[in-house]
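FAQ
Q: What does a multi-component entry look like?
A: The components come first, one per line:
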Amino acid sequence: MNFALSRPGRFIGALTADLKTIGYRLAAALVICVILTIASDAFLTANNLLNVLRQASLLFLLASGLTLVILTAGLDLSVGANIGLSACIAASVMKLSGSALLGAACGVGTGLCIGVANGLLVALMRMPPFIATYGMLWVVHGITFWYMAGTTIYGFPAAFRALGSGYFLGVPIPVYLMFVFLTLGAFFAQRTTYGQEIYAIGANRESARLSGVPIARRLILVYTVSGAMAGLASLVFLARMNSAEGDIGEAFTLPAIAAVLIGGTSLFGGVGTVSGTLVGALILTLVLNGMNLLTLDASWQPLVTGIIVILAVFLDTLTRKRAEARK
Amino acid sequence: MNEIAMDRPSRPVSAVLARVPGVAWILGLLLIGFSFFSRDFLTGPNLHNIGLQSVILLILALPQTMIIMTEGCDIAAGAVLTLASVMLAWVLVHDGSLPLALAAAMATGLIFGLANGTLVALLKMPPFVVTLGTMGVAQGLALIVTDGQSIVVNNDALQAVYGGNLGGVPLPLLIGVAVYALSHGLLYHTRFGTYVFALGGNAEALKLAGVRANAYLVAVYVLGGLMAGLAALILTARMSSGHPTAAIGMEFDAIAAVVVGGTSFEHGKGWLFGTLLGVVAVGVLRNGLNLLTIPSSAQVACIGLLVIVALFIDGLKGKK
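Then the predicted structure of the entire assembly, as tokens:
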């Protein structure tokens, strides 16, 4: 257990501790890259690679918060619906007030509120997380559709759009965001007491409770972070699309869960890392990008993502069974 | 309420009232509320309409009750129903034979039920995430088969099933009654049903007693798949087409009906008649909100709130 160390360079320390656990997943990502390079001429171009990174960064922003939730042996099925509502609220506030900053704040705030609601349902009302967040999914989804009433909001200030489609030193801005939140997330999970308590809750809730971890408060915290990250991801998505509709978040839930699971975080809690999720997001994006380059229709995406989720859960279950057999 | 009723056995009215389940209160309130707010609600044709609309939901919700009783869940049900409907429409357009089309739909359901059951029971994978995965697969297949378009069906036999009646009772309603009777018999009067109760209550004890618990667990999911295939018949007939997103999300209505009906996600506590009442409650809620011209999207939010309230009440009762 690595509890908070008070010395400089601990950000780096946290990051490397995190990175050690994901070696063979990175190797898998590289293998996919090699295969795609052979299969398609369009893959190994700067444009396409930057595109992959940009898509992966959006997925990572969403999945990083979800990782913390799954580390507590919970689940947040409402992240996709959350993106939808947060993006629509941000878009409409931006249009009404003319202020990009206010709109962005409202977007993240919406996501955060949904997260808090999830946290309260799970921690205080003791609802099973998947049921509470599944109910929340449909509540949020319904509110979004009712609020938008079939309309589209489009055309945002250039400064805001840069968040999703801008470049800095030739690299898309979301990629910088990804690395900022990777460092923050890895540090939070590995080098703070909060993070270690989150692992402890997922590994064995009863013993965490007996060691004095305030379980309800930590659970509310992780669901809130997950909601706020969905709000942030919605901004990046909104900035890239430059338009908001009621149904924009729908396609995100399954890929986000897939990214976390591919990244090696266990559904049973207590095992996993934020940087693993980054690699998971990268692998999933590479696969979907490859399908795209090989001109497979977009309607194959839910099918493939679904199969990947099932395989990842299968591996997770197998690993857990082996670990139990060893005991 | 309970304590008061038990303290005074000489007042049977309050004792009876205390035993009325929550879902009956909800249903009663909805009925009174909607007949108050909308003149069209309490009319023969409208009630007939509610019945017809609720049949599909009922066929989905009954096996879902059993699945939830085993501490599982089948989120793929809506997507499997959609895929089955698409397959049914596809076979009808290409072959024209209704029995063959129904067989294709049921086979689709069977395959997904088997897959879900195998992954959950034999490989011990968490049901919620597994069925989320198979949901993606079914949804993807429906999109691929149809290429995103509706498959329009003009089939007399199909319309005869949907529009026909026997002694004045519409055929779909009869199918619903038959499925309910079958589920009731299965759950309360067979060994299978007893094991379903035991699977959620104490699966370990069931295994120690020498029962092949896993086989029964797979069977529960298979039943869910088959029923989705059957529901596809009514859905396709009602829409005269197989559409790749026709029933996406309908599992939520079904799960809502089950939960509102008092079946718990823990300890194998389930009540089939409660699910029937839950289905009617969700049907009445949707219909009433329709009459009040509240859009379908906001209805979904209302059903979500209904579930959270029901689970909350469930949690309160659990604490006592």
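Q: Is there any commentary attached?
A: Sometimes. For this entry: Chain B has a mean pLDDT of 86.
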